[in-house]
Amino acid sequence: MAATSTTNQDRRAMWFTRLASASRAALACSIVAYTTLYGPATLRRLVAFPAFSYLTATLIVTNAALGDAVRGCCLVVFATIQTVCPAMFLFWFIGPAKFSHITTAVTVALASVVVVLPSSTHLLAKKIALGQIVIIYVVGFIGGAHTDPLMHPLHVAATTALGAAASLIATLLPFPRLASLQVKRKSKSVVENMTERLSLMVKAILAEDRTMAAASISRAQFLSSSATKLLHSIKLYQESKQWEKFPLEICKMGWLSNSEKLEDLEMALNGMELALSKIPSYPIQNNPQNYQTLKHDLNTLENQITLSLKQANTYFPPSDSVTFPEINVDGNTATVINTLKSIQITPTSHQDLPNFFFIFCMKLLYKKTQVKTPIKFKEESKEKEIKNSTNKEKNRSTWVSSMNNQRVITALKCAISLGISVILGLIYNKENGFWGSLAVAVSIASNREPTFKVANIKVHGTMLGSIFGILSFVLFKKFLIGRLLCLLPWFVFTSFLQHSTMYGSAGGISAIVGALVVLGRTNYGSPKEFAFERMIETFIGISISVVVDIIFQPKRASKLVKIQLILSLQLLQKCINDSFCYESSTIMEKDLQGLRTQVIEVKKLIDEAEVEPNFLFLHPFHGDSHLKMFNSLSKMVGLLALNGEAMNNLKEGLWRKVGEKLEGDFEKFKEIMANGFVTFYENLRSSSLKSLKGDESKEDNCADIEMGEAQRIEVMDEIEKEKLINSFLQHLGEIVESKDGKSEEIILSLSAMAFCLNSLMKEMEEVGEAIRELVEWEKSSF
Length: 782
Description:
The protein is mainly α.
């Protein structure tokens, strides 16, 4: 019932969010429409390109909070200064009448390089600046001698400013949509999600049979996927919060509004979920007395964590620092968290490890919610600022050397696409020759995209919007208000379209703009002819961008994903080699963050490869095997992070004694894993990866894939693994029997390390199985 209630709440929240977003987008475009159609004559003459006002408003206001709109307005000012000022000087020096097809295309291409090449410029600013470049130079060339060299760029600036102002007003009316409030609401939803999952997982570990445990685990896994979406939403609002300093001070939030802190708690919950999946049998305690003691202790600990989460999320800290309130709970806390005695003294076999790991993760969750010392967010932010400023100075000093191939290629792709689109668009239809290049300008992306899918949905979206605009125009030919009212349901429809798997953001925005430029115009001739011409021009621009993208990036994601897997495996091997060394804990944390980034990149390439058509490749993309590898790699990242937490619980002096006792087990573990890596590299190299040539930057990184090569033995041999775990548990018992090891914290930490070792080897098996499955599948597909 709880899961069903959560689902209904999520569905209602989704509908409300979509409708609110559509309403604000409709309001922004209504402001533009009213201003350009009914505003003062002077203002209407100044805003000479209302279609670009609609486009600017749509780019800024879509799914935007107030902070996004404020940032968008600042980016509009930056983009306008970057483009309008040089254009005014160029037109004054040369004159629009002296431009030709070729010189216009070359000017647009060169100006686009200046805009796209800097890595520090925001993507929205680049899109707006490129759109302004197209309108300034192409429309200026179309106007010829009638184009005012100074007023024409100012008209473009005023047009852009109107769209930005409309988007800002739309986020303020009827009440401000604050990112800080959105984060606060979603943080509360995350806390509710976490507390419910915690309750379900405690019920699962205390279940009397596997059926009851499976039901609770299944519901917890469903809630885990919802938590991932909520955390992603909070991340999206983090940057917008920075632009809402004044409202943020009014709406002070608890410490759980920080996405990094939430991810920290999520790591502990994921560890508990992983432990439950490894428990061999239920109940975990056959002794009724021990079971009741365990039940009481875990339930009390659960109540403490739940109370801490709720208090932390509602406590409003001062702006400079945060001091968390003391948590008052009935009972003796020292007795409550001493749950180890209700199970047994030490684990005697690998089947006992999941129980200990569950308690370790639950205590870790408790510790992360029981912070009682002041945390100086201001000091942390200063450290980040110092680090960022240092990096900026370093980047400035090595600006030329930092012009890596990818940035240059992106700039060249954009310049060539725009240049060719300008020429072909003007040749096809001089009057509307800027629509194709404008479609290319606003389509620039910061990362790789599935080329054919994005091109396809943009064409579909443009056609859908244009057809809807023509039909609305036919129904309300003589009633402008009626045509504009038709846009309201269209905004609602496209709001859902933007979040659909079929069209996404690119297709939804194309559909909005396609309808706006048809309905939001007067005295431009037949809308049917205009819509047809615009669709042809858009098709020309998108086709050119696809061809140029293929020329500059012939390697598709289905091939690049294997290179990315090798890079991830290399860094994973390095993290494993450093994971049991106390001195390298700082380096390990940095490498682990890099590994997390590499694994995320694997998922991006998998998603891209799955939606691309297969006709370009020698064989279809086998997504199942790649997803298995990604899932296992993600679990291994989490296990290494939790293993690091277990190491941090041991003081340096004690760790040296423990390390001496367990050094042989650690070295054996690294040897087993190294042999697994060698085999994985060879299998990947024997697949279609060997056909990849030319990507020198990544091939150089993949060249030394034999690092840490050990003598070839039977990889991931079950007997060797069992010997290793038994040896580790034997040494663990010896440590516990010594005077230094009688602490519950030590026993739990070492048991957690044993569980991580065992689970890492099992996940390596899963990776190996997925690679073998992929290789066999590729061989059979030829």
